[in-house]
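Note to self: keep these together.
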Amino acid sequence: MKTSHTAKRLIARIYSAAADTLYEPVVINGSFRLFGGRLNDLILGQGQNAVVVAGAMPLLDVPVGTAHFTVATARRHRGIVVGADLARGMTLAASRSARSAGLGNLVVVQADLHDLPFPDGSFGAVMCSNGLQVIPDHRRAARELARVLAPGRTLFVSVVTLPLGGLLPPLASIHLPALFSAAGGFIDAFTDAGLSVTSVRRERLALLLEAVKPA
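Structure:
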């Protein structure tokens, strides 16, 4: 547990430092396109679908990052969109993006994906775009995402992976960081969390999936 906490603090510091300068040009417009092809467009498409699924209920986007994708989602949603991120630098950048876009319905909070500060079933749709591959214990995060999702609603996930785990024996691969997990590891994480995975798509090294919580 202590190791996980230390790793999360380090990751948060790195992302906070990158929020204002490196994140969008290097990560979103660089590595996402290099490793994920049309990933950015597909994430925007997931956002459109999430708005439809959420209806009038609040929608959660975690980790929100700089709100690069979240702004488009909030413009379409008639309800509240909550953007959460562990990195304070990211929440500050996301808040500025919301203000610049004039979006009063986009609320940004600092929160840990392993311990989200929301009641069970709070959200009509949940988006988790390119976050699970960099945090420790993605299975715990999957359980938390499932917890805050309302019954009968959909979780939209995207991750970029270098699936070295698929080349190793199962007992060895489980110790790899999530970044190196095979697609099956992420799918299993959500099915183990009680969700039904209804859609899986590969785009280069990116994995996009949808999972529904039983009604």
